[in-house]
Specification:
By secondary structure, the protein is mostly helical. Among the domains are: about 130 residues; about 120 residues, no CATH class. The chain is built from 32 helices and seven strands. The strands form two sheets. It has a five-stranded mixed beta sheet with strand order 2-1-3-7-6. Strands 4-5 form a two-stranded antiparallel ribbon. β4 and β5 form a beta hairpin. It is globular.
Length: about 725
């Protein structure tokens, strides 16, 4: 055992030395890959060893090590930042302080683990000899990246289509072949990475709404190598600046690994996000079989929200990892490990609090009512969700959001509650009060084609199956079958939140329906499988069906139930990925990965020409003195994330001759009156329109804009790259 202990020490220190050399010499690819593996997993793994925590499964060890490492990086960055605020360190988040501070801490953790933990098993050399068995599982992510390159350079989606077909074949075969169950975690990570990377890399720049503001605060933090939570212009920036997951964490990773800031959000964060389904697999298999856990995780990952929409919200990607880790620990059945695992809970709580404010409040709501339910109905039951845990969690949440950034996330939370309560009596029977996303999900809103209606109805069927699965779960629980009471209570609370999101006016706006539903699916996904099984068993009791399918054998029933589940899941997956819309030539494609060149003309896509023109204006324009006019899409996207123009100096183009600005901005006033720049992106120039409100489909023709077509003013085009243009206007 002593030899294993020494071997463990030597392996970790040798790995650290290799990473340090690659960083100092700036060896391309090696620095990025080995550095990410080291900083994203090794510190957390060493913490487990220092606290003598041994996890039963390698998958759980990897997930928790990843979460602890990220929490430790944010904590170290925060401490360094405090030294900077005291003028002890200049630019505390620059490469040199980070490198010289983090590496000794990791080395010390390694030595402490060596000295205090005599039971370290070490790394088995014979285990490394079987690595070639895992190589086939890299095929899907590699093909996915190749598909992106083929789409970019050959304008073909043939490889991406093949990847979707291959994913279906892989998970169907894995579900039927019991001998593949030991590879379920590898299959899950392979499928998930293929989906995430194909969606994230298909656009060269950040894509989506929230991520533009997140990217802005990240760049602002990185540029000055210092985190200033008070450095905000709008209420939304106030909330974003309070999140270390999109300020300190990406700054640490980008500076240590020398990764382009855009690629941090488009590659590093999705890779971290792929740990969430792995954690879910561990959570699910504690309550159900490995096969049910595997199919449930595939259903979770098959949702469009997971592999596309969540890529537009960096802080939720990180927040969900800590959310899953917390419940992995809280729902552990090992009562003896509570004290030793307290370190994991504390760091995971810290990680969640500084990663995503909305998920913090959801987590607080769930654990409070779970604790309350256990106290009322199961007085003698052991639970880690106790009063002490509630006090620690709520204290940290309220301290961070009230003391660090007063009026930010907490103000948004209380505002949502106020709006929901006020609208409950006046708008309860109005479908429009549920928002466009809820209407679309329920099939109330108009869909762009008949196939999209089919996709929506299939989506609704999965929700119905989840509700049926919940009823079945409650019935089984009352009969004291399988799932424990605490787990059932948490699932019940998630069902209540789902019903509220659909039924209560304005409630879904707290996190947006798609993202809220994805959070709820973290616990509700297995109910989809249970729901299909319940439906099948109910109808199989009919004599004719039982006779025709010969269902007297229980194994045969399980096989047919699995077949029905996979039929629904495959159909759902093909619609969610946009596969059906692409191969049928639907006029409204939904997937960048499969329909890249059909979707180049959508307003939200940031083009290379847009970035170049925004950077040119930032570099050569007198942007601090003169106002810049743009439409609402460019204001919220490319000018927000890829320019250095103060948002308060940006005005919105309109048919009015008056000055119009975003209502969230704090102070107006261009220093040079009536002299301004006019920014037009590629979409504006190509289509001759500027957007006022894309959601309401309100826009203006460029020829109708008074600011561009006023004979009393001098308007001159001062920049053009063939697509995007910038004008100078003076009286």
């Amino acid at each position: 055992m002593a030899a294993n202990n020494r071997r463990f020490l030597l392996y970790v220190l040798a790995f650290q030395a290799t990473v340090c050399v690659s960083i100092v010499l700036d060896i391309p690819f090696v620095r990025q890959v080995l550095g990410f593996i080291f900083f994203a997993f090794v510190p957390g793994y060493l913490l487990l060893k220092v606290f003598k925590i041994e996890k039963q499964h390698l998958t759980e060890t990897i997930v928790i090590s990843g979460g602890l490492s990220l929490a430790l990086l944010m904590l170290i960055g925060l401490l360094l930042n405090e030294l900077g605020s005291l003028n002890i360190i200049s630019q505390p988040l620059a490469f040199e302080p980070l490198f010289l501070f983090i590496n000794p801490i990791v080395a010390v953790l390694c030595v402490i683990g060596y000295v205090t933990n005599k039971n370290i098993k070490g790394l088995e050399i014979k285990g490394l000899e079987k690595l070639w068995n895992f190589i086939p599982f890299l095929l899907l992510p590699v093909l996915s990246v190749i598909g992106v390159l083929v789409a970019f350079y050959f304008q073909s989606n043939i490889v991406s289509i093949f990847v979707i077909i291959l994913i279906v074949i892989v998970f169907v075969l894995a579900a039927f072949r019991s001998n593949l169950s030991k590879y379920y975690p590898l299959i899950v990570i392979s499928i998930v990475l293929a989906l995430l990377l194909s969606s994230a890399l298909m656009s060269r720049y950040t894509y989506g709404d929230d991520i533009q503001g997140e990217f802005k605060v990240f760049l602002n933090t990185q540029n000055i190598s210092f985190w200033n939570p008070q450095n905000y212009l709008t209420p939304q920036q106030s909330s974003d600046y309070s999140m270390l997951s999109i300020t300190i964490l990406p700054t640490v990773l980008s500076n240590l690994l020398n990764i382009d800031p855009t690629l941090v959000f488009k590659i590093v964060f999705p890779v971290i996000f792929s740990l969430v389904p792995l954690g879910l697999y561990e959570l699910y298999q504690r309550q159900w079989s490995k096969k049910v856990a595997f199919v449930s995780v595939v259903f979770f990952a098959a949702n469009y929200t997971y592999f596309t929409l969540l890529l537009t919200n960096a802080k939720q990607m990180i927040g969900e990892l800590f959310y899953v880790i917390l419940f992995l620990e809280l729902l552990s059945s090992d009562a003896n490990s509570y004290k030793s695992n307290l370190m994991i809970l504390v760091l995971a709580i810290f990680g969640l609090v500084v990663s995503h404010y909305s998920m913090d409040f959801i987590f607080l709501i769930i654990i409070f009512f779970t604790w309350f339910g256990v106290k009322i109905f199961f007085k003698n039951a052991f639970t880690r969700i106790n009063a002490t845990f509630l006090v620690i969690t709520s204290s940290l949440v309220f301290f961070w959001y009230i003391y660090i950034v007063p009026g930010g996330p907490f103000g948004k939370f209380t505002g949502t509650i106020r709006t929901t309560v006020n609208s409950f009596t006046t708008e309860f029977f109005s479908s429009s009060s549920r928002g466009q996303a809820v209407q679309a999900a329920l099939g109330i809103a108009t869909r762009p084609s008949k196939l999209h209606y089919v996709g929506t109805y299939l989506y609704d069927i999965t929700i119905l199956l989840i509700l049926i699965g919940f009823i079945s779960l409650v019935v089984k629980w009352r009969r004291k079958e399988k799932t424990n009471a605490e787990y059932t209570l948490i699932i019940s609370l998630n069902i209540v939140l789902l019903i509220m999101a659909i039924g209560v006016p304005q409630f879904a706006n707290f996190l947006q329906l798609g993202r809220l539903y994805e959070v709820l699916l973290l616990f509700l996904s297995p109910l989809f499988v249970i729901g299909v099984e319940t439906i099948f068993k109910t109808f199989s009791r009919k004599g004719q069906i039982t006779k025709s399918l010969n269902l007297k054998n229980e194994n045969r029933k399980a096989v047919y139930s699995l077949i029905l589940t996979l039929i629904i899941l495959v159909a759902f997956f093909l619609f969610q990925t946009g596969f059906v819309y692409e191969i049928t030539g639907d006029p409204s494609p939904s997937s960048f990965a499969l329909s890249y060149y059909k979707m180049q003309d959508i307003p939200l896509l940031i083009h290379e020409s847009d970035v170049y023109s925004a950077e040119w204006l930032s570099s050569y324009g007198d942007i601090n003195s003169m106002a810049t006019y743009s439409d609402s899409v460019n204001y919220a996207h490319v000018l927000n994330s890829y320019s250095t123009i103060d948002l308060n100096m940006i005005f919105l183009l309109s048919s009015s001759t008056g000055i119009v600005r975003d209502v969230a901005l704090l102070y107006p006033v261009p220093k040079v009156a009536n002299t301004s720049y006019i920014y037009l992106g590629q979409y504006n120039v190509k289509n001759g329109i500027t957007w006022w409100d894309q959601t309401a489909h309100l826009y203006f023709n460029i020829n109708d804009l008074p600011i561009l077509n006023n004979t009393n003013a001098f308007v001159n085009r001062i920049y053009s790259n063939g697509y995007s243009e910038t004008y100078f206007r003076s009286p």
